[in-house]
Amino acid sequence: MNFLEKYNRYLQEFEERLAVFCGDMSFSPELLTDSMRYSLLSGGKRVRPVLFYAALEALGGDWRAETEFALAIECIHTYSLIHDDLPAMDNDDFRRGRPANHKVFGEGHAVLAGDGLLSLACSLLLKTATDARRSTAAMLLSDAAGPGGMIAGQSADLLFEGRGAGEEELLFIYRNKTAKLIAAPLEMAAVLTEKSRKAMRNFGENLGILFQLRDDLLDVQGESEKVGKTLGKDEAEKKLTCVRVFGAEGAEREANRYECACLSALDEAEGDVSFLREMVSYVRRRDR
Fold this sequence. Notes:
Radius of gyration: 18 Å
Number of helices: 14
Shape: globular
Largest sheet: 2 strands, antiparallel
CATH class: Mainly Alpha
Number of domains: 1
Strand content: under 5%
Structural class: mainly alpha
Order of helices and strands: HHHHEEHHHHHHHHHH
CATH superfamily: Farnesyl Diphosphate Synthase
């Protein structure tokens, strides 16, 4: 299989599992269920569960057997997007080419939908943490999503809006807001298979920074129809981004540097990591 065929194989498997999961979801009032389903089923690249599946397969694991972990990863990511779009956060009306959750269900219900997805992720992790390895994998994801990870990055992102912050603060945001939740699925796969944990963690951290570099560049270079959200908002809201710190050309150089760092990290990994190598190029050159 070529890269896109393999990506779509992972993606289709995950979408089928997610559809069943959402079909079984039933909470009262029904509006709560509807709002949670709306964002979970709104499509997207599913980069994090795909990375989890791909790393498991590369390291010799049974990737189709880890549904609960993959669902927990996406529940956490989707909750973060719902909250990120809120007026008090990044204030975006669109996500994945559709109206943001709060534009459909209202701000209060969007907050609760995000809370609900985070709680569901916790339940999934507790359900699957049946031995030491699986408990460690669950803790990795929980830590990446919490106040020592994504929440810290989101807080710093708000804190440094319009301030004279620089490269050190930018890297803190990138590492915590984005990179830790991209690195976690890769390191989880390494823990489950007991192989290449350091290499996968290093790869994931560099890939996450590369992902956010490209995200910031797309905000000034991309097309709204492809990206699926409002563009130009980072500059309007005086966000701390790579473009603000390095300039567009400097940001491209930084992206090239992290692309090389990703590939170097994979040199230390076991198994057939060819798909993960191609993922680096996909992340570096994506247009959405």
